[in-house]
Design brief:
Helices cover 48% and strands 12% of the residues. By secondary structure, it is an alpha/beta fold. It has two domains: 4-122, Rossmann fold (3-Layer(aba) Sandwich); 142-178. The strands form two sheets. It has a five-stranded parallel sheet with strand order 3-2-1-4-5. The longest helix has 13 residues, at 71-83. It is globular and about 40 Å long. The two termini are 37 Å apart.
Length: 184
């Protein structure tokens, strides 16, 4: 059986850690999974992380191969940042890692990476409806804190005038409902 290689973006691993989403990739023997060194940094940089959360991250990452930031990645990163100045630094490093190793990238953030020429983006599997039991489990690894949600809610509420909802309220509601940073 042939082995498929792929690079996973941080958002895929966060979804996997939170609710075992996209498990057909990391749990399958069909795939040799790589991650960028920046992904490890992004996963471990959350403030207030519990020891159990850090342990789960380390356990997960041990199963995969890390792509170190070497001279080839740095050179490709420089080319990407020059050519696509609006590309975030972390995304540029992940894109550079994928391009130097000629690996397809598995990400939910297609709009971030779609601009990079020569980068193959893998289609992600359709998210399955969570079971009733999973819907009521507490969030273990959300990036958008409750304080952030509270501020967005206050901002949306303050943007009403005489009972008329302004477009910014809808934008704030859409952000809260569709954000891939909240995993609960």
């Amino acid at each position: 059986m042939g082995e498929n290689q792929l690079l996973v973006d941080t958002d895929i691993l966060i979804s996997y850690l939170n609710r075992r989403a996209y498990r057909s990739y990391p749990e399958s023997a069909r795939y040799r999974v790589y991650y960028s060194a920046v992904t490890k940094k992004e996963l471990l940089s959350k403030r207030g992380q519990k020891t159990s959360q850090r342990r789960a991250i380390f356990t997960l990452l041990k199963r995969f191969r890390r792509i170190h930031i070497d001279r080839r990645v740095v050179n490709e990163y420089s080319r990407l940042r020059t050519r696509y100045p609006s590309l975030a630094k972390g995304d540029a490093l992940i894109g550079a890692s994928a391009r130097t190793r000629k690996l397809p990238l598995l990400t939910q953030n297609l709009r971030h990476f779609r601009v990079i020429e020569g980068l193959t983006l893998l289609p992600i599997e359709v998210k399955q409806q969570r079971s009733h039991r999973e819907q009521h489990t507490p969030c273990h690894y959300g990036y958008l804190t409750l304080a952030g949600i509270h501020l967005i809610s206050l901002f949306a509420r303050a943007s009403t005038s005489g009972g008329i909802v302004s477009p910014i309220c809808f934008a704030a509601l859409r952000l809260m409902m569709n954000s891939n940073f909240v995993a609960c």
